[in-house]
Amino acid sequence: MRLRELACLFAALVCAPAIATAQTSSMYSNLANPSIGMNALFTGQAARSLNQAYGLGFDEAEISLISVVDPYWTFTSNIVFVGDGSVDPEEVWVRSTNIPGIQLKLGKIRGTFGKHGLLHTHAFPFIQGPIVMANTIGDEGFKDPGVEAAWLTPLPWFSELTGGVYQAIEADDEHPLDFGSTRHDNIPFLGHFKNQFDLNDATTLELGQSLLQGRGTDGFVHAAYGADVTVRNVPARNSNRRGWILQGEYLQKGSTVDGTHIREADGGYASLQYRMSQVWWMGVRGEQARDSFTDFLVDDTGAPIAGKVNRVSANIAWTPSEFSFVRLEYSHAQADAGNGIRPNDDRVMIQLSYTIGYHPAHAY
Amino acid sequence: MKFPLKCMLPLMTLGLLAAVPALADLKVATSLTDLASVAQFVGGKHVTSQSLCRGYEDPHFVPAKPSLMKAIQHADVFVSTGLELDTGWLPLVLPGSRNPRIQAGTKGFVDASQGIDVLEKPVGTVSRAEGDIHPLGNPHYYADPKNLVIVAHHLARVFSQLDPVNAADYEANARAFDERMETSLAKWEKQMAPYKGASVVTYHRNFDYFAERFGLKLFGTVEPKPGIPPSPRHITELAAAMKQAGVKVVVYQPYYSADASNEVAKRAGGTAVEIATEVGGVPGATDVFTKFDVLVSSVAGALAGK
Question: Which of A102, A158, B141, B214 is geometrically suited to a Cys-Cys bond with B66, CB 3.0 to 4.6 A?
Answer without folding.
Answer: A158
